[in-house]
Amino acid sequence: MDVTLKVWRQDGPDAPGRFETIQVPDVSEHMSLLEMLDVVNDRLTVAGEEPIAFDSDCREGICGMCGMMVNGHAHGPQQGTATCQLHMRKFKDGDTITIEPWRAEAFPVVRDLVVDRSPFDRIIEAGGYISVRTGAPRDANIQLVPKPAADWSMDAAACIGCGACVAACPNGAAQLFTAAKIAHLNLLPQGQPERWQRVEAMVDEMEKYFGSCTNHGECEEACPKSISLDFIALMNRDYIKAKFKNRRLAAQRG
Amino acid sequence: MITLESHVPDGPIQEKWTKHRFDIKLVNPANKRKFKIIVVGTGLAGASAAATFGELGYNVEVFTFHDSPRRAHSIAAQGGINAAKNYPNDGDSIFRLFYDTVKGGDYRSREANVYRLAEVSNEIIDQCVAQGVPFAREYGGLLANRSFGGALVSRTFYARGQTGQQLLLGAYQALLRQVHEGKVKLHTRKDVLDLVTHEGRAVGIVVRDLLTGELTSHSAHAVVLATGGYANVYYLSTNAMNSNATAIWRAHRRGAAFANPCFVQIHPTCIPQSEEFQSKLTLMSESLRNDGRIWVPKDPNDTRPPQQIPEEDRDYYLERRYPAFGNLVPRDVASRAAKQMIDEGRGVGPLKNGVYLDFSDAIARLGKQAIEERYGNLFEMYERITDENPYEVPMRIYPAPHYTMGGLWVDYDLQSTVPGLFVLGEANFSDHGANRLGASALMQGLADGYFVIPYTIGNYLAPMLGTQPLPTDHEAFVRTEADVMARIRHVLEVDGSRSAAWFHKELGKIMIQHVGMARSEEGLTEAISQIRALRDEFHRDMKVLGTNESFNQALANALRVWDFFELAELMAIDALHRRESCGGHFRLESQTEDGEALRDDEHFSYVAAWEFKDVGDWELHKEPLEFEYVALSQRSYK
Question: What is the percent of chain B with per-residue pLDDT over 90, rounded to a whole number?
Answer without folding.
Answer: 91
